Amino acid sequence: MELIEITPSCFYFANPTNLGYVRKEDTGLLIDAGLDASIANKALRLLDERGWPLTHVFITHAHADHYGGLHQIQKKRAMMTAAPAVEADVLRYPKWEALYLFQGNEPPQAMRNKFIEGKAASVDVVCGEGRHRFGDLDVELIPLPGHADHQMGVLVDGVLYAADSYVSLDYLFKHKIPFFTDLDKLLASQEKLLSLADDLLGAVPSHGVFEKEFKNTVWGNIAFHNKMLDEILALVERESLPAGIDRLVKTVCDACEVELSDVAMWALYRTAVVGYLMAAVRRGHLEMAIEENVLVFKKA
Fold first, then answer.
1. Where are the beta strands (DSSP E) in 68-114?
2. Which pLDDT tens digit goes with each residue over 76-97?
3. Which structural domain, as residue segments, surrounds residue 248?
4. pTM for the full predicted model
5. CATH of the domain at 132
């Protein structure tokens, strides 16, 4: 892990899932907390080596790679924790993540791991969009839903910590079918990023690097998702009969050369594939129906 300076006040911990850090006078704000205690400890050590404060933590959204280290930080530091509505509920009761990924049923133990369900943590303040004061820092919280329903980015001193509203192109092509819950909301968030870009010093996503000029990366995300949607529609049209969700998940994963090796991985990729299918339904390209007791998708 490396602590990278963006401006004299804004930094991020370069990691598979980045953590942001902003300091001003006696205030230190950590943006997200990493996957687990080991990541949290590394971040704390780097701050301690510099004698920098940690007074506040803001969690952008309640996916385990963003909050799994929060429990450890709260054990070691007295600070305020803030999060968006709904996301705060998952931090307090992390089993919600496994429950909704498993369609509301009691999840199998294979899904009760640190990549799906971090340790429970307390939340002191539930934040809505707009301007907030964290100690000596003035920040603006910007709703960026789509990847997670109530995800928020953090704008401070012209730097946008963009969470998972977009990712590096390398990350996209590595994962092939990136996780999200609502494609239309995700694309709207990415359009919002483009509208903000000219007024910012730059942005850093949770999976990628800080860029002063980040528009091309966002455009690359938009193009990737639109191309994937077109390819999935073509796959559905080639089905000889209306296809159920499980069949379509297999068809799309096979076409993308994704091998699902466990139940948790299946649940994550299933969510993303259904996200594309539901976007196609909302746009009138596909329709859903119940046929012979099976929920199927077919050409509208």
1. 80-84
2. 999 999 999 999 999 999 999 9
3. 228-299
4. 0.94
5. 3.60.15.10
